[in-house]
Design goal:
Blueprint (H helix, E strand, L loop, with lengths): L6 E7 L8 E3 L1 H10 L9 H10 L9 E3 L8 E7 H13 L1
Antiparallel strand pairs: 1-4, 2-3
Bound molecules: zinc ion.
Length: 95
């Protein structure tokens, strides 16, 4: 007799975007490190634009972008074995 495995979906809040579905654009994070601010001051404007050009952007992109970990859903959905899910629930309830 073949063994049947049962699965359920485990849904959790995405840790990377904290459930918002959006994160700061990774290049903006680098920009902030480089320029110590995301505010472009007038005296830095040329340098900032040059930086974006060097990183492949003709204009700076939106500060926020869709979270790549959850594809903008804010949730992580995993397929887990029913036994593992029950075990996890029982362990959680004992804590
Ligand atoms: Zn996310």
């Amino acid at each position: 007799m073949s063994q049947i495995e049962y699965y359920v979906e485990a849904e959790s809040t995405c840790a990377r975007c904290d459930g918002t579905g959006m994160i700061m654009h990774p290049l903006w994070e680098e920009f902030e490190k480089e320029f110590h601010s995301i505010v472009v001051r007038t005296e830095n404007a040329d340098k900032a634009m040059q930086w974006w050009n060097e990183n492949g952007y003709y204009e700076s992109p939106d500060i926020e972008c869709e979270c790549p970990d959850c594809d903008g859903r804010g949730l992580i959905i995993e397929r887990v074995l029913l036994e593992d899910a029950i075990q996890a629930i029982m362990t959680r309830d004992q804590a």
